[in-house]
Structure formats: structure tokens, C-alpha cells
Specification:
heterodimer; A: mainly alpha; 11 helices; globular; B: 4-stranded mixed beta sheet; 4-stranded antiparallel beta sheet; 17 helices
Chain lengths: 315, 530
């Protein structure tokens, strides 16, 4: 088991190296440059002076090696457009994305599993149809649109919830205020992630309920609650956990949109700003962070399989 | 200089009157009001840092006083950190008297050394590439005469200097930045707590969320009438509008015309139609020999129904442009120039006359060459729909434009820097002066801001005459001749001067309406009515 984890970690580091290499050369292939270099109103002389300052007058491979040498020592460089160390920017933004993404993931998992099980148990009856429609709606509605709609309805028309931000100014330590700010963005994000959980859960529960061991459990006279919780659910959980693992990794891309709409200053918005402004060190930093999260989540999900299903072993 | 004395007395009289009025009004002002504003990204709190542009300009205007600022009445330069200015040596030098008793927000005195530092060590230092430094490239150096007098020594006459000094040209503190290796990249200053002279100072900067300003107790102009200001960082324009409608923003700048109705219906906000010296254009690349014949450019312009485009794209919030100088410049704007009303038939006739006759494929040709243009456009604002409309109008007269839509960053690289285009639609935003040399002169062709690579020594001479003219009368005459020339020869095909739309809360008063920059230069006068 320990050997397995160690092997996966070494693989993970190699994957991250490849990711950084690819990202670095791809973003440098893209036309354009950092905001201050492509500023409409600047002259060629001003731009050349800035190129030299940022070290962008050196060849790409040389710049990559410099960056890599810094990265292995924990120095991710300095943002071109913001003038701050990349590690500081990531540290500022990560807790915000984790709060939003974590809450959305918990909501999506909770409601997704409950609704998925309900849909399976009520198969082809009206609750199943209603839940199916909700899932289709969540899947097919773009979250930026849903976000703006939610702002208009709940913040503008009813005035129940704040329209944006993650806290009221001057009330940074007020938990109730933070939760109120979390409702809309986490709700919208969860709504767009939930359909996958509903569908996977429903399919898994239906499949398991048709299995021989469930029929056996019923035949030996177990009450339906025990059949459902102990025999059906536990066995249906593996695909659901796999799906949650997938969702946890796409949360990053989902929160990019939601963060922009709701004015949350998380990693997603940092990524968009960096990409638009060709802030190379920040793009690399965000990509590396996202890569680390994906590698870690995959490892955790694989380990979780073994816990849920003793037949799965990592030797 | 008798006129100057008279003007000074008049200014004094008006100031006293306004001050009296201010006291009367101040009783109705809410002393606890905190204003909420929006900006689209984390600002950089240094007006000269490269890349500190749209997200930083307005907040820096409040924080960093300049030598001059614009009059809310007619945009002429009026005193700020400088109290008076006089040209010398036939316009080759300008002497600025500085305000006495001004303190930086950390208590240090402001003096001539700060002005000399800002220009000599920052703006004019070619290694730093300071933002918009090129606007000041006629300055040779700034000499300190005494603690409160500086002398700008110029390479060539530059009559618009006091105007340019009011255009995002904040003065930096030498005592805080002088020791830095690069005064433009000091993180604690730019992203934390800068030392400033303006009516408000930074109280709190939460990255990605907001910048909170509080009144600067050391401000030279007396206490501002607001308890504070909060600039919320909201990248999405629709979200800004939604928040304003929800009552969480008091000022929203650069509104899209299509949200005006909902804002006006709200009753909480009113929309100001401001101006800016800004024109949209189609630039013909003059490296292309087909533009040597001015009739081709005239025909291309006459084929476009500009009023219809303004109605469609700007919901009517704009005016057909006849040249680069916007009507907001008052006397310096000249309407007495060649106009090109929409007339596709006349446009076709002009092209026939120039030898471009209709081909079998519906596209005109001359000596086997087709009148077809590569027209790259960037995904920004309304550039794509506007380019597509121009393409349609030109198709009607047998001109083929191949509109290529590109990502904005890539567009600037290819079109603005590399000039790899034949025609393209964009805009210029300029300081409020008729001095448009950075966008039209031969020295700015190929590598500067003269995107169309237009070069005519005659036009250069006209613009130099404007820069050398020291009285307003001489400037009016010089720039009228320049505008007549630019309308005849069409270095750019002028499209429109858009209205700059700003929404503000109806209770916010003392907010100059003329331009956004002017409004923010007078933030000390803003107050919220009770």
C-alpha cells in the first residue's frame, strides 16, 4: 500500500513536470503578450523597455529553464501584470476557491445522491420524471446565465441575498454574512454539477437493485431499509465516488465562470485574468496548482475505492 | 500677463462663490456617506506603472494629484498641485509655480523635488517604459528652480503641455520611491498603501475584492464631504449593472448603451452622457498603394451609413465624426471641413473615376487587381459587429472586405504592432486637446500610434504650428487648418464620437458631468444629499 502511494506520487511529480513544460511552450506560442506589452496606446519604444524588464527578450527555452530552476526551489516567479509573487497570489486566492468549490461539491453530492436514490426507487413514476427534468435543466443551462438570473431574482428583485462578493466590506469575520454570500454562487455551481451525480446514482442504484445479492437479501426477510442502505447503497457507491472525483477536478473550471459572475476573487478568476493578460508566470502557477489538485484527488479517489469495496486492492 | 491676473481674480471670485454655495449645500450632505464604485480588475496604485490602465485610471486620479486638472466647465487646465504656469522662450520652456503647504499622506512635505523625480527619473527614464510616457516625449527635463517652482525644458514647443499634465499624470513621492530600483514596481506601494496627496487615501486593499478609501486628513483642499469610498472589483460588466440595480453600487462607468433603459427605470440611478476626446475609425494601411488615390478612401467613407451604425450599435448614443478632434473641445473643434454624407452612388462614381470598375464577380478591379481588403478585427466591445456592418456597406459598392475575427490580445499583436492588415476598425482615446500628433505624424508611422502609417510633411507642419501657438486664437487657427487637412486627405476614415455613458446615484451631487476623468479629479467636491 505505502509502496503504491509512493509510486503514484513519483508519477504525479512527473505529470506535473510535463504539464508545466507543455503549458509554458503553448502559451508562448499564442500570439499577443502581457497587457502592458500589447497596450493599445503604448509606443514601440515603451514596449521594448518593458520586454527587457520582464526578461521576455530572452529565448523561450532559456526562460523555461530559469522558471524551472526557481520552481523546484519553491519560487514560482513574479506576476508580470500585478508585480506580486505568484505564490502570494495563489495563497490569496486558493482559500476562496476551496470554500466555493467545497461547498458546491458537498451540496451537489448530498442533493445528487438523495435525488438519485429517490428517482431510482420511484422509477417511471412522477418523482422520477420531475427529478429527471431538473437534472436535464441543470445540465443544459449555462451556469453564467443561471448566475445572472439568480442575481436578478434573489438579489435585485427580492433583495434577499447579496449580489456579489464573498463577504460584506468591514464584516470579514461575520460567519452569517459569509454564509449569505455563499448561498447563490455555491447553489448555482452545485445545480450545474448535481445532474451528473443524480444520473450516476440513479443508474447505479437501479443496477444494484436488480443484482442477485439484493434479491437474496430480500428473500431472507430483511426489511427494505436495511436492504437499501446496507446492500444496495454500499455497492452502488463506487461509481458515485468516481463521479464525485471527476466533479472535484472539473470544479476548478466550473468555478472560473461562477467566480467571474459573482465577483469572487478565486483561482478561477485569477486564471482568466492571467490568460487574457498573458501573465505567463501566473498561468504556469495556476496550471501547476490545478495539476496538483487533480493528481491528489485522483489518488484519494483510488484509495477510497479500497475502503468502500474490499474487493479492490492496491498492491 | 494682465489677462492672466484678471483670470486669476475671476477664478478666485468664482471659487469663493462656489465655496459659499458649498457651505450652504454641505448642510444637506450626509457626512457618513460611503460611496460604492466598481472597477473591472485589481488596480495598480501607481499612475505610471506599465499596464495600469482602465482598471486603475480613475482610482489613481483620486489618489494622486496632478500639476493641473480639467475645469468642469470647459476642460481647460486649472490649478491642482501647480497654482500657475507661464510659457517662456517662445514656448520652449514652461515655469510652474507649485502649491505651498501641501503634505503627502504620510506627513512629508510636497515640493519641487517630487515633480522633478516624477518626470526626470520615472517618466523620462527610457528603461522603465512608463505608461503613456510617449505623451511627454517633447520634455527634455524638469529643473528645480526653488522648493516651489519648477521649469519644464522642452525639445520643441508643446503648447498643449498644461492639458497633458492633467491627463493621468499623477505626481509621485520622491521620499517614498526615490530609493527603489524601479519606482514603478514597488509592490507595497502599488498593491498596498501608496503615499499620495489626493483628497482620499487607501485604507484597505483586499486583492480581488475591493479597495477602501478614507478621507485624507492632510489634504490641501480641506476635508472631503464623504466618509469614504469603496471600489469593488467586479470584472463582469453585466454584474456591475445588476449590482447597481440592486443598490450596491453608486457609480458605474463605461456603460453599454443597451442597459440604459433598465438603469433609468430603476429611479435610483441617472445616466450621464459624458464625452471624451475619442473617435472610432476605419484605418486604411497606407503601405498599400491602393490608398495613394484619396478618392478610394473618400468613396469607402461615403459608402458607410454612419448614422445608421450609431443607431444600431450605440442605440443612438454618439455623433458622426468629421475628424479626430471631438466637439467637446469647444473652440478648438472645427466643423468647417469636408463632410462625407452617406451616398453609395456617389461613392461608386468616385471609384469609377479612379479607374476601379465593376468586375463580373461583383467586386471592382483595376488592371487585374481586385478592390478586396483583408480586414482583421478584435473581439472587444462592438468592434466585430461594427466591422461586419462596414463589410456590408462596402459590398454594396463592389468592395470586398474579408473580416477576420481575432482574440483581442492577438489582434493588437498583429494589427497594431506588426501592422499586418489592409483595413481595420478601432478607436483612439486621446487627452482633451487638439494636439493629435502622436496618432498622425510621420514619426509615429510604422512603429508608433499612427496605425494607418500615414505620412505627409504638410500635415506634420500644420501640427507643429499648433504646438508652437501659445495663444488660444493662434491654436484655433492652426488646428482649424489641421482639421481641414485631415478631413480632405483622410489618414483615417472617421466613424463616430461615442457618448461615454456613466450611471450615478441620483443623490450623489457635486459630480462634474463633462468627462469621467474630470469628475474623478474633483472627487473632493462629491457629496451625498440627505
Amino acid at each position: 500500500m505505502i509502496e503504491y502511494v509512493a509510486r503514484r506520487l513519483v508519477q504525479g511529480v512527473f505529470v506535473l513536470f510535463l504539464v508545466s513544460l507543455l503549458t509554458f511552450f503553448l502559451i508562448n506560442l499564442a500570439p499577443g503578450g502581457p497587457s502592458s506589452l500589447i497596450d493599445f496606446q503604448s509606443t514601440a519604444a515603451e514596449r521594448e523597455a518593458r520586454m527587457r524588464q520582464y526578461g521576455l527578450d530572452r529565448p523561450v527555452h532559456e526562460r523555461y529553464l530559469t522558471w524551472l530552476a526557481g520552481a523546484v526551489r519553491g519560487d514560482l516567479g513574479r506576476s508580470i501584470n500585478q508585480g506580486l509573487p505568484v505564490s502570494r497570489l495563489l495563497a490569496q486566492r486558493l482559500p476562496i476557491t476551496l470554500t466555493l468549490g467545497g461547498t458546491a461539491l458537498v451540496l451537489a453530492a448530498l442533493f445528487g445522491v438523495v435525488l438519485g436514490v429517490t428517482a431510482a426507487l420511484q422509477r417511471d413514476r412522477w418523482p422520477d420524471h420531475v427529478i429527471g427534468s431538473v437534472a436535464t435543466l441543470g445540465m443544459s443551462t449555462p451556469s453564467f446565465w443561471l448566475g445572472i438570473l439568480a442575481i436578478i431574482v434573489f438579489a435585485v428583485n427580492f433583495g434577499w441575498l447579496p449580489a456579489a462578493g464573498n463577504a460584506s466590506i468591514g464584516r470579514a469575520f461575520d460567519l452569517g454574512d459569509r454564509l449569505r454570500h455563499l448561498v447563490l454562487p455555491a447553489g448555482v455551481l452545485a445545480f450545474s454539477l448535481m445532474p451528473n451525480v443524480i444520473r450516476t446514482t440513479r443508474a447505479a442504484v437501479l443496477e444494484t437493485r436488480a443484482a442477485d445479492f439484493v434479491r437474496t437479501a430480500r428473500a431472507k426477510g430483511l426489511v427494505e431499509r436495511v436492504v437499501l442502505v446496507k446492500h444496495t447503497m454500499r455497492n452502488a457507491l463506487v461509481p458515485v465516488v468516481a463521479m464525485l472525483g471527476l466533479i472535484a477536478t472539473v470544479l476548478f473550471s466550473g468555478s472560473v465562470v461562477i467566480e467571474s459572475v459573482f465577483g469572487w476573487a478565486g483561482i478561477g478568476r485569477l486564471a482568466i485574468e492571467a490568460a487574457n493578460g498573458r501573465d505567463y508566470p501566473v498561468i504556469l502557477g495556476v496550471t501547476l496548482l490545478a495539476g496538483t489538485i487533480v493528481v491528489t484527488v485522483n489518488l484519494v479517489v483510488d484509495l477510497a475505492y479500497a475502503v468502500i469495496d474490499p474487493r479492490i486492492r492496491h498492491d | 500677463m494682465r489677462i492672466r491676473h484678471l483670470a486669476a481674480r475671476l477664478v478666485l471670485a468664482v471659487t469663493l462663490a462656489v465655496a459659499g454655495l458649498g457651505t450652504a449645500l454641505a448642510q444637506d450632505a450626509d457626512p457618513n456617506a460611503v460611496l460604492n464604485l466598481a472597477t473591472n480588475a485589481d488596480p495598480t496604485l501607481n499612475p505610471w506603472t506599465p499596464g495600469a490602465v482602465i482598471e486603475s485610471n480613475l482610482i489613481n486620479t483620486i489618489l494622486f494629484d496632478q500639476l493641473t486638472r480639467y475645469s468642469p466647465d470647459d476642460l481647460s487646465p486649472i490649478p491642482a498641485l501647480a497654482t500657475s504656469w507661464t510659457p517662456e522662450e517662445g514656448g520652449l520652456a514652461w515655469v510652474f509655480e507649485l502649491r505651498q503647504g501641501v503634505q503627502w499622506s504620510d506627513g512629508d512635505p510636497f515640493d519641487a523635488a517630487d515633480v522633478a523625480f516624477t518626470f526626470n527619473d520615472v517618466v523620462l527614464n527610457p528603461d522603465l517604459g512608463a505608461q503613456s510616457a510617449s505623451q511627454f516625449n517633447t520634455i527634455e527635463r524638469v529643473d528645480v528652480i526653488d522648493d516651489h517652482t519648477v521649469r519644464f525644458v522642452l525639445k520643441r514647443p508643446f503648447s498643449a503641455l498644461p492639458y497633458y499634465l492633467a491627463s493621468f499624470a499623477g505626481i509621485l513621492p520622491e521620499h517614498a520611491l526615490g530609493a527603489a530600483e524601479n519606482p514603478l514596481t514597488v509592490a507595497e506601494f502599488n498593491k498596498g498603501n501608496p503615499v499620495t496627496t489626493g483628497p482620499f487615501k487607501v485604507a484597505e486593499f483586499v486583492p480581488g475584492a475591493f479597495v477602501r478609501l478614507e478621507p485624507n486628513p492632510l489634504y490641501w483642499g480641506g476635508a472631503p464631504k464623504l466618509a469614504g469610498m469603496i471600489f469593488r472589483i467586479i470584472p463582469d460588466a453585466n454584474t456591475q449593472v445588476a449590482q447597481a440595480l440592486a443598490g450596491q453600487l453608486d457609480v458605474v462607468t463605461r456603460l453599454s448603451p443597451n442597459v440604459i433603459d433598465s438603469i433609468e427605470r430603476s429611479g435610483r440611478l441617472e445616466v450621464l452622457r459624458q464625452s471624451q476626446n475619442l473617435f472610432f475609425f476605419v484605418a486604411p494601411n497606407h503601405d498599400d498603394a491602393r490608398f495613394e488615390d484619396v478618392r478610394v478612401k473618400q468613396a469607402l467613407l461615403m459608402a458607410i451609413d454612419r448614422q445608421a451604425m450609431i443607431d444600431a450599435i450605440l442605440s443612438g448614443f454618439g455623433r458622426v465624426a468629421s475628424g479626430p478632434v471631438a466637439p467637446m473641445l469647444g473652440a478648438l473643434f472645427s466643423e468647417d471641413v469636408t463632410q462625407y454624407p452617406f451616398d453609395p452612388e456617389a461613392a461608386g462614381a468616385l471609384l469609377d473615376e479612379a479607374g476601379w470598375t465593376m468586375g463580373a464577380d461583383g467586386v471592382r478591379a483595376k488592371d487585374g487587381e481586385r478592390l478586396a481588403f483583408d480586414m482583421p478585427t478584435g473581439q472587444f466591445g462592438d468592434l466585430v459587429p461594427a466591422s461586419l456592418l462596414v463589410q456590408q456597406y462596402w459590398a454594396d459598392i463592389g468592395v470586398d472586405a474579408d473580416v477576420r475575427v481575432m482574440e483581442w490580445n492577438a489582434y493588437i499583436q498583429e494589427v497594431v504592432l506588426a501592422r499586418a492588415y489592409e483595413v481595420t476598425l478601432a478607436w483612439w482615446s486621446m487627452p482633451p486637446t487638439a494636439d493629435v500628433a502622436p496618432y498622425f505624424s510621420c514619426s509615429a508611422a510604422q512603429s508608433g500610434n499612427n496605425i494607418p502609417n500615414y505620412c505627409d510633411p504638410e500635415l506634420d507642419a500644420l501640427m507643429d504650428a499648433g504646438r508652437a501657438a501659445l495663444t488660444v486664437e493662434d491654436q484655433v487657427a492652426a488646428y482649424a487648418a489641421m482639421q481641414a487637412f485631415t478631413a480632405d486627405e483622410l489618414p483615417y476614415l472617421y466613424l463616430w464620437w461615442p457618448d461615454i455613458l456613466t450611471a450615478k446615484s441620483v443623490t450623489l451631487q457635486g459630480f462634474p458631468e463633462i468627462t469621467a476623468a474630470t469628475a474623478f479629479q474633483h472627487a473632493a467636491d462629491w457629496y451625498v444629499a440627505r
